[in-house]
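Data availability excerpt. The first of two example chains:
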Amino acid sequence: MSQPTERNRLDGEASPYLQQHADNPVNWQPWGEEAFERAREHDVPVFVSIGYSSCHWCHVMAEESFEDESIAAVLNDEFVPVKVDREERPDVDSTFMTVSQLVTGGGGWPLSAWCTPEGEPFYVGTYFPPEPRRNQPGFRDLCERIADSWADPEQREEMERRADQWTTSARDELESVPDPSLAGDAGGSEAPGPNLLDEAAAAAVRGYDDEYGGFGSGGAKFPMPGRIDVLMRAYARTGRDAALTAATGTLDGMARGGMYDQIGGGFHRYAVDRQWTVPHFEKMLYDNAELPMAYLDAHRLTGDASYARVASETLGFIDRELRHDDGGFFSTLDARSRPPESRRGNAGSDGSDAAEDVADVEGAFYVWTPGEVDAALDEPAASLAKERYGIASGGNFERGTTVPTIAASVPELADQRDMSTADVREALTAARVALFEARESRPRPARDEKVLASWNGRAISAFAAAGQVLGKPYADIASDALAFCRERLYDEETGGLARRWLDGDVRGPGYLDDHAFLARGALDAYSATGDPAALGFALDLAETVVSDFYDADDGTIYFTRDPDEETEQGDDTLFARPQEFTDRSTPSSLGVAAETLALLDGFRTDREFADVAERVVTTHADRIRASPLEHVSLVRAADRVASGGIEVTVAADAVPDAWRETLAERYLPGALVAPRPPTEDGLAAWLDRLGMDEAPPIWADRDAVDGEPTAYVCEGRTCSPPETDIDAALEWLAARDSPE
C-alpha cells in the first residue's frame, strides 16, 4: 500500500506548535477536510495528536516517538497523522477532550486519538511512551495493533460501532439543551437565583485544603481563580469566615509556593504537589491574567497590600515578557530551556559540545543551586536569600536544584539575625533584584508569539482592573492592547473578528471565547478609562455573539457558528457543535458571554441582551443547580441576571482622582463603573459617535448636578439619588446591604 500522505505539510503553518513538528519524519497534516479525504481514499484511520507549544509532555512524546524513524514509518504507512494546536483550534480540542473524559475519566495534553476517516474517535489517550512502561502500552505497539485491527473486517466493525457510540455520547454532552416541551418555552425549569453563588462557595469550602490552601488534598494543585472569586463574593454577602479563609488561604498558598515565580513575578501553570512547591513551569497568558484579578479583589476586600503586590508583579511580568511592542500580548513561555553553563558539566568545556547542543531542561531558567546564589550575591545577602527562598544543597527539584519558595518569613529572618524587619525587607529587595539580573543572562525559554483574541481579552480585563485599583499606567496598557487587537484582528467593515495574529499572519474566524472575552475586556477598558470607543467595540462584539453564536430555538450560545455556514468553523470533520459549560483553565465562554450581555444591557434601549442572558441561564438552570462549583462563570451570570448587580454611573468630564482612590479601596464585586459626559450636549456627542438614537438607561437623565462630578449608584435595579460626594453614594449602598 502506498503511503496515504507523501510528506509532512506543517512547514506551511504559522503556528509555533505546528512548526515544532514540521521537521518530524511523521508526515503530519494540518487539521482539515483534505486530511480526512486522504484517509477515505486510502481506507485508513486518522491519528490526531493535539497539544500546544509550551506543553512539557508534548515535547517528551515528540522526542521519544515522533522523531523516531521507525515509529514514524508506522504512522505514515498505516494512518493519516494530523497535528492540532489546541490554542488555534479549541473547537477540535473540546470535542476530542470530551470523548477522552467520558471514556477514560480524564484528559490532558498531548491528547492522542485514533479516528475513522469520518473523524469519529474509537481509541483515545494522552501521553504514550514509545515502549510499554508500567501500566501504559507502548506507542509503537499500540499503533501496530490498531492498524492490524482496522484491517480485520470483524474488528473494524467493532471499532466503528465504538466510534459511533462515543461520538453520540460526546455530541449529547456538548450539544445538550433541555427539551422545551418538557419544561415550558424557556427550555429549563426557571432562572436560578442568587443563592447559587452561596452554594458554590459552600462546595468550595468543603473541598478546601486547610493545611496548604487550594482545593483537594492529594496530588497536583491547580489555580482556580473562579472558585476564589465566588468565595470572596459569598463572604461579602454573608460574612461567613470559612469562605474568606478558603479564599485567602489559597491565595497565600500560591503566593508562597513555587507556582509563583518568586524572583521575577508571574505564575507557572500549576503545582505538581499538594504543597504548591514544584510547578509545571510553562507560563500561560491566561493564568497571569485571571489570577491578578483575584488578588486585586482580595486586596480590596481585606486591605492586605501583599495581594496588590502579587497582582502588580504578575502584570509586570506580562508587560515585560509577554507584550508586543505595539501593545498586544503573546501566549506562552515554554517550560523548558537550556540550563545555564554552571549546570552543564563538561558540555562545551573543550569545544566539543556547543551550547546549542545541550538539551533543554524543564524549569532550567527558574531554579537555583546554592552556588549560583553565591555567585550572584555577596555575604550576608547570599545567606539571607538562600534562607528566604529555601535554596539548599540537594534542592527540592531535579538534579539538586531548588524552586524558590517563601521558606522563611521576614519576622523569622529578623529574629534570627537580630535585624529590624525594615532592614530585612530592604536587604531582600536588593537581593531579589540582583538574582533577577543574574537570571536574565541565562538561556531563555521559547515564547509562543501568537496573539489570541480570547486570551488578550482576559489580559485586558486584568490590566483594566489594575487601572482602577493601582493607577492609570495599567489602564493605558489595557487600552493599547485593545487597540492592537482591534487593528490587527478585527475587520471594521464586516465586523469579523479573527482568532489569532502571528507576525502579520491572521487566522480566523474567532470563536465564542474570542468574542465574549474581548467584549468583556473592551467593556472593562471603558470602565477604567471612560473611552466610549472601547464601549462601542464591546457592543459590536456582543452583537456578533447574539447574531452568530446564539440559537434562539435551543436557548443557548454555542462555541462555534452554525456548522451550515460557509466558514472555517462550519468544518464537516467536526462531529459536534460544542458548548463550553464548565470553567477549566479559562472561564466558561458560555458563562462569560451571558454575564457580559447582562452587563451591557444597560447600554441598550431594548432588552435583547438581557433577554438572551436570562434565556441562557434559564436553559441551563438544572445543570447549574446540580453542580454550581463546576459552573462558576454561569453562576456569576445567573447572579447578575437575578440581582441586576451594582452599577456606578459617573457624570463628569473625568472621574476625579479622589473618587478613583475611594472606589479603588472598596470591594464591589462585579460592579460596573459607567462614566458619561456631565451634560446632555456632551452625552449627545457620545451617542452620535456610538450610533445611538437615544440615551440608554445607564446614562439617561443622569447629568452632573451644578456642574460638579455626580455619582448615581444602583443595586438590584434601585438607584441612589444623585450625589456629588462619592462617599455619600457608597454609604447609600452600604446601608442597603447592611442587615436590618
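And the second chain:
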Amino acid sequence: MKSVAFIVSFLLTFSLCQAQDKDQELVGTVSFVTSNNVYVKFDSTEEIKVGDLLQVSGKDCLKVTDKSSVSIVCSIMDDCSINKGDIVSFIFPSKEVIVEPVPVIVPVEPEPDDKVPEGSKESLFTENIRGRISASSYNLFSNTRDDRHRLMTRFSMDANHIGDSKFSVQTYLNYRNITSGGSSYDGRTSILNVFNLNLKYDVSPDLFVIGGRAINPKASSLGANDGLIAEKYFGNFYVGAMGGFRPDIYDYGFNSDLLQYGGYIGIETAADNVYSQTTAGVMEQTNAGNTDRRYVYLQHSSTLSELNLFGSMELDIFSKTGVNSRLTNLYLSARYRFSRAVNLMVSYDARKRIIYYETYDSLIEQLLDDDLARQGVRMRLNVRPVKILWLGASYSNRFQSDNQNKSDNIYAYATLSKIPSIGGRMNISYNLNNSNYLASNILSVRYSREFFENNLSAEVYYRIANYTYENSLLGDFAQDFYGLNLSYRLSRTWQLSILGEYSQFEAENTYRFYTRLIKRFYSKKKK
C-alpha cells in the first residue's frame, strides 16, 4: 500500500511540475537604436521587469533599464550587434497551475534553505570595458632638409560600470616626443595632452555625477571641463550643472585662473523611428576672478526615420565695449538616406572669433575690427549603383564678406570593393582646391587586399599633386608620392602596421616611415 501511495504521489508531483515549468515567450521588435540605448516594442510589457534579460537569436543581449506599457528601454550586453527590426524574445514561466493533490502522507526529507541572502540584489548595471593602447613612430628622412622623428603613445579607455558597479572611468591620453636632426625646429619637443580623464558615478539610472576632465556630449562645443558635471532625468526631461576650470589655452594643461560654471536643461524623446535630444544652457567663463566670456548655447540632434539632423549655436551675451550680443557659432547639418545605396549630407556653419575679454584685453579693439563670420557650406553624395561599386562626390565652399580666406573644394571618388577575377579593392579619388593664394589638383590611386585568412592587409598607392601659388615666384610644380602600407593582426587584440612612402620633387627625395603597434582590450565578460 505504501508503494502505491508513493507512486501516486510521484506521478502527481511530476504532473504538477510539468504544468508549472512550461515557459512562455513574448516576442518584440527593435524599433530604435541609439549609441546608448535600444528601444523594443511589445504588444504588452506586463510580464517584463527592470533588470530582466532579453534574447536576440537565442543569446542574452539586452538588459531592461526602463519600460512603459508597450515599450521598453534596454542597454546592450556582451558587445552584441543590435539593429532596427531585429526580433527580441523574453522567456518567462507560465502562471502557476493550481492542482488539488490527493491527501497522501509520504515522509519527506527536510529541504535545504534556498533563500537568497540579504544584500545579494542583482545590479542594475552591466560592466562594459573597451580600451586601446598604441605606440607609434613617425620618421622623415630627406636629402635637402633636416630629418624629423616623432614618437607618440596613446591610451584610451571607456570602462563602464566596473564590476557591474555604479562607477565608470573614461580616459584619453596622448604623449608626443619630437626630435630633429638639426637646430631649425624650435617648438615644443615633449608634449603630454590629457583630453579625457574622469570618474563617473551613477547614483541611480536617472542621476549621475562626473569628476575630472570631461567633455559633456550635451554641450560638445564647450570642450573639456576640469571639475564636476551632474545630471538628473525627470522622465523625458533632464537638468544638469557643471563647474570647474577651462584647460590652459596655450598648453592644454590645468589652469586654476580659468574658472567656469553653468547649467543646462533639455528634453529627450524616443518613439518608433523617432529620436531627438535638445539642450539649452548658459556658461560663465572667468580669468583671475573677472568675467572672460558669458554665453548661451543651444544644441539639438534628432533622427526621424532615415533623416538625421544636428545643430548647435553659441550666443555671447557679455561685452565690455557696448556690443550687446554676438552670434559666435552656428552649425547645422542634415543627412538623409534615400536607400541603402544612396545618401546625401548638407551642412552650413558660420563662426566668429571667440573673444575672451580678460585673456585678450590688449587686443580687443583689433579683434572686433575683424569681427567677420567665416562661413561654409558643404554637400556630400554617396551612391552605390551596383553591389561592389561605391561612387561619391562632395563640394565645400568657405567664404566671408570681405572675400578673404575663401576656398572652393571639390572631391570625388570611386571604390570597387571586389575586383572580378583578381580580388582586392581599388579606389580612385580626385581633389581640386582653389583659395586666395593656392590652386591644387591631387589624383590618388589605391589598391588593397587581404591575405592569410584576412590577418594581413596590404595596400599600395600612388598620388600626384600639382600646386600653383598665386603671387609667388615658385610658379607651378608637381610632386609624386609612392606608398606601401602593411597591417598584420598578431592576435585578436594585437595589431602591427607599417607604412612606407617615397616622394619626389625636383632634386628633393623624401622617405617617410610610420610604424604603429596597437593593443585592444575588453571586459573579461566579453567573448
